[in-house]
Automatic annotation (TrEMBL):
The chain holds residues 117 to 386 of 409 of the full protein. Its main location: membrane. Keywords: Kinase, Membrane, Phosphoprotein, Transferase, Transmembrane, Transmembrane helix, Two-component regulatory system. The keyword Transmembrane helix applies. This is Sensor-like histidine kinase SenX3. It is an enzyme of class 2 (transferase). One of its GO terms (cellular component) is plasma membrane. GO terms for molecular function: phosphoprotein phosphatase activity; phosphorelay sensor kinase activity. It comes from Microbacterium immunditiarum. It catalyses: ATP + protein L-histidine = ADP + protein N-phospho-L-histidine. Its EC number is 2.7.13.3. Residues 41-257 form the Histidine kinase domain. It comes from the Bacteria. It is found in: Cell membrane. One of its GO terms (biological process) is cellular response to phosphate starvation.
């Protein structure tokens, strides 16, 4: 954008010379606008599940004399409440990642630790979808960052890969070292993403093909969290996808040498 300058301070140096300090407000306005959009979208997205929970709670109350009805409403209430819980926790994570001044924890993190935790957190989802998770690739690679945030990022990709795969399919989680960059690739053989939507799916609350997406009960925030999390770690996310063939999301992070005393580095020295 064109810089837009405003004077923030003027001091008269001599009768013929005044020093004016200018500041470019474009960037600040852009950030402010993003914040306003986020709040507006968030309130909008929260209204639907909050409304549903309220209605279902009232339905449970008024069906008190009919135990069968109560069970039906109560189980829908449980489903809506857990969706609401997922949505609020994702909104909180995303706003934390977007707050530029909030520091993320940085320590040496084993990529194996991230991948193991992310895969384990999705075993139940994979089982109930009839999808198998196949893990492979390099071991003993390290990155610097916040293990919890990175685990959630990889986990979101795995959750999507499962959700958009047909029953009986396999989801691959692979790690490799590509010239000083760690690549964690999550591959599925599911529905795929049309070319025209491949950029948009990383936007907050964006969900491709409403009918298909609604069925899988997502939030539209998963990929936005992945993108922000990876960018905060100096990395990037790449996507390859073809409708009907499947998708590969690749998280790329700067590789660091293994810390002293790590098994992998000892083996190399030996
Ligand atoms: P959601 O909670 O809807 O999955 P995401 O931000 O994680 O939100 O994803 C945004 C949209 O991108 C999804 O609604 C879906 O249309 C598309 N998408 C994400 N991952 C995949 C995938 N592995 N295969 C096909 N479509 C995907």
């Amino acid at each position: 954008a064109e810089p837009r300058l405003v004077a923030v301070r003027a001091s008269v140096i001599s009768p013929r010379l005044t020093l004016v300090v200018m500041r470019d407000i474009t960037e600040r306005e852009r950030v402010e606008q993003m914040r306003r959009d986020f709040v507006a979208n968030t309130s909008h997205e929260l209204k639907t599940p909050v409304g549903a929970v309220t209605l279902l709670a009232e339905a449970v109350e008024s069906a008190a004399d009919d135990p069968a009805q109560v069970r039906v409403f109560a189980s829908r209430l449980t489903a809506e409440a857990s969706r609401l819980a997922l949505l609020t926790s994702r909104i909180m994570n995303l706003s934390r990642l977007q707050a530029a001044d909030e520091l993320i924890e940085t320590r040496d993190v084993a990529v194996d630790e991230i991948v193991t935790a992310a895969v384990e957190a999705h075993v139940v989802q994979a089982d109930s979808a009839g999808v198998e998770i196949a893990r492979g690739g390099r071991r003993g690679l390290w990155v610097r960052g916040d293990a919890q945030i990175l685990t959630e990022a990889v986990g979101n990709l795995i959750a999507n890969a499962i959700a958009y795969s047909p029953e009986g399919a396999t989801v691959g989680v692979g790690v490799k070292d590509a010239d000083g960059v760690v690549e964690v690739a999550v591959t599925d053989h599911g529905v795929g993403i049309p070319e025209g939507e491949q950029d948009r799916i990383f936007e907050r609350f964006y969900r491709a093909d409403q009918a298909r997406s609604r069925r899988t009960g997502g939030t539209g925030l998963g990929l936005s969290i992945v993108k922000h999390a990876v960018q905060r770690h100096g990395g990037e996310v790449r996507l390859w996808s073809r409708p009907g063939r499947g998708s590969t999301f690749t998280i790329r992070l700067p590789l660091i040498p293994p810390p002293e005393g790590d098994g992998a580095s000892n083996r190399r020295k030996a």
